[in-house]
Amino acid sequence: MEILWFLIALGLLVAAFSPYMRRRRGGSLRLVAPGSPDAADPENYGFARQEHLDIRVPGPDEDLMEALDAVQRTGRWQAASQLLAGTPKEGELRWQRVQAFGGAAALELVAEPGVGARWLKAWRLEAEKDAGGAQVHAELLVQQAWRHSGGVGSTDHRIILEEAREACRKAALLAPGDPVPFITELAVARALGYSEAEFDALWAKVIDVAPAHMGAHLAALHYWCEKWHGSREKADAFAHAAAARAPRGSLLAALPLFAVYEHVPDVVLTNYWRGAVVTRAVEGALYAVHTARQDDPVLAHVRHMLLSFLVPMERWAEAMEQIRHIDGCVGALPWSVSADPAAQYAVFRALAVAGYEANGGSPATLPH
């Protein structure tokens, strides 16, 4: 989804002037002179500088970063294989790590066409039956198709997706009971335009092994959105059905917020953000965040999405609470669809800090 028009304009303003925003009596914001002691500054809260924000992952994963550094530095795949072999197929973490390795390989191939990602090529050649390598290869193909194939509808796009579909199916055979290959194929299904019956058959395979997998539901939600093969009503029904059957502690209660995000109108009136649809979705996501395990790998995804809604809703304290937990890593929606994810996140963060201080907040009042 393209970022909202009024937030683009506001974002450009804040990007230029956010270091000079300060509180004003009455809770509104205004600009102050550069260097003013009253200026709002995210660094006063210990937040990361924009240039230090990590766009690869939604939240910290030290084991992943160490393995990724090892394979890229040495060109050897073993560290990645060992990490995935030790990551349970149940839960969300394996899906995120496969995505990260596949994304890293895709970026290497962009930087060095034809010669990048040598470690993945060696992995597939030297350990053809390694389930982790097969899953990363399938994810790489999907990311190549979306990012670097000439665009949706091009011949290259379809050729790569057909190859990705076959790679997903081979990966599934190597790891029975692992939902990751099926989740990866959900992106293929959306792009190749599976019929609803075909998509339902694939979805049945996913929920058979991982009925409460948030990552799988996020991937499936795209198919049912208006801009792909569904509608606003179908996406909303899918999201609310998943939220309704979610056990306590599941982040599926936040899925309706992602459905709202996918259907925000191009032209947004101010009262949209305080309307019943947005408010209910945000409250559901906040409930999910408060009841989820704090080590849930998808929690950061939900907090990033919440931040993008809480800022235009002017719920500054709650926005700052999300930043407190996620700052440093921005590899998640909605920032990841931007040409510069770090800059887009920094705009919202600056607005949150300025709004928080305009209403009496300070580094001393923000919980740690």
Task: Summarize the structure in words.
The protein is mainly alpha-helical and 368 residues long. Helix content is 58%, strand content 2%. It contains 16 helices and two strands. It has helices at residues 5-17, 62-74, 78-85, 93-111, 118-126, 131-147, 155-174, 180-192, 196-209, 214-224, 232-244, 255-262, 276-291, 299-310, 316-326, 341-358; strands spanning 21-23, 29-31. Strands 1-2 form a two-stranded antiparallel sheet. β1 and β2 form a beta hairpin.
SSE map:
Blueprint: H1 5-17, E1 21-23, E2 29-31, H2 62-74, H3 78-85, H4 93-111, H5 118-126, H6 131-147, H7 155-174, H8 180-192, H9 196-209, H10 214-224, H11 232-244, H12 255-262, H13 276-291, H14 299-310, H15 316-326, H16 341-358
Antiparallel strand pairs: 1-2
Short descriptors:
single chain; 368 residues; mainly alpha; 16 helices; disordered N terminus
